[in-house]
Amino acid sequence: MTRSLIAALSLMMVVPGAALGQDHAMHGKTDKPIVIAHRGASGERPEHTLLSYQRAIEQGADFIEPDLVPTKDGVLVARHENNITETTDVASHPEFASRKATKTIDGETMTGWFTEDFTLAELKTLRAKERLPKLRPGNTKFDGQAEVPTLDEVIALAKQASKETGRTIGIYPETKHPSYFASIGLPLEQRLVDKLKAAGWDRADAPVFIQSFEVNNLKKLKAMTKVRLIQLMAGAGAPADGAQPSYKAMITPEGLKAVAAYAYGIGPELTMIQPATGPATTLIADAHAAGLKLHPWTFRAENFFLLPSYRSGANPADHGRLKEEILYFIGLGVDGFFTDFPYIGVEARDAAAGAHKGG
């Protein structure tokens, strides 16, 4: 999930500050919001690697997020996109030079190397690298150290960490481009459900959320599993499966009621709750009124990604006041949030809980 350049570079604004001692009871909140490690601790390690997920667990994340795409032989692996050009060293492997291809996926034409053209054994010969080296140069020292992990490996890590830490570490998988993969004979849903059932996770209280930007595959999953489902939404555009005219149409009160018929909650882009300029929207109240939870994305420390009033200085790569930004959204009443920096998310969540307790 990627914040838009327009939002990131918009004019400075003043977001109403969330008082640390704000009474969360006014939002009907009794549980602390969950901290979801976005692609792991991707602010500190190359994304979607066991290094990144392990770091997130060490920092106190409640859930680790694997975006799922299939290999040629149908194995689900964790990559943000099936195009692995920017996140692996595939371009430096001459044996795979002929695999380079141009494809159109969800209306976007791109050239690179794609997971569906590699067997798992072939993919395992590659090594992960940092996707944003200019913004996160410190992460590049981990380039070449990690493989592309399978869903099985991510589940095993979460289960082992749960035993070792004594706290439940959940997973928050996203089905990437489900219509596209179904169209080439590699549908995601049954593969994912089978793995979750094998892990003992087919209950509404299982430590799992399944998320998707599409609609019809979530409706399909509703009939296949009891695991909680999250409808992802972006500030612009529409679901790639054409099930709705736009994401904006889905956040009307009527639209949210329709989502609530198949999903447990929504994962909106954070600017759908607090735009880069102006006051907060009514999305939190409207979603809660429809019985939906909200887990917005994505909270990142770099100025490039922060809302303007939380930036520090002019360098896009410098870190701003992420903790304050998260505290503001907690004060608005979110039920959880995705962050590339889980330790800052945990600090903010704990500060908000402490202030509420003290109040």
UniProtKB/TrEMBL annotation:
SUPFAM superfamilies xref list: PLC-like phosphodiesterases
Catalytic activity, reaction form: a sn-glycero-3-phosphodiester + H2O = an alcohol + sn-glycerol 3-phosphate + H(+)
Keywords annotated in UniProt: Glycerol metabolism, Hydrolase, Signal
Family named by the database record: Belongs to the glycerophosphoryl diester phosphodiesterase family.
Entry-linked InterPro entries: GP_PDE_dom (IPR030395), PLC-like_Pdiesterase_TIM-brl (IPR017946)
Biological process, per Gene Ontology: glycerol metabolic process; lipid metabolic process
Enzyme class: hydrolase
Signal peptide annotation: 1-21
PANTHER family noted in UniProt: GLYCEROPHOSPHODIESTER PHOSPHODIESTERASE GDPD5-RELATED (PTHR43620:SF7), GLYCEROPHOSPHORYL DIESTER PHOSPHODIESTERASE (PTHR43620)
EC number: 3.1.4.46
GO MF term (any one): glycerophosphodiester phosphodiesterase activity
Superkingdom as given in the UniProt entry: Bacteria
Any single Gene Ontology cellular-component annotation: periplasmic space
CDD domains the UniProt entry points to: GDPD_ScGlpQ1_like
Domain GP-PDE: residue ranges: 33-349
Protein name in the entry: glycerophosphodiester phosphodiesterase
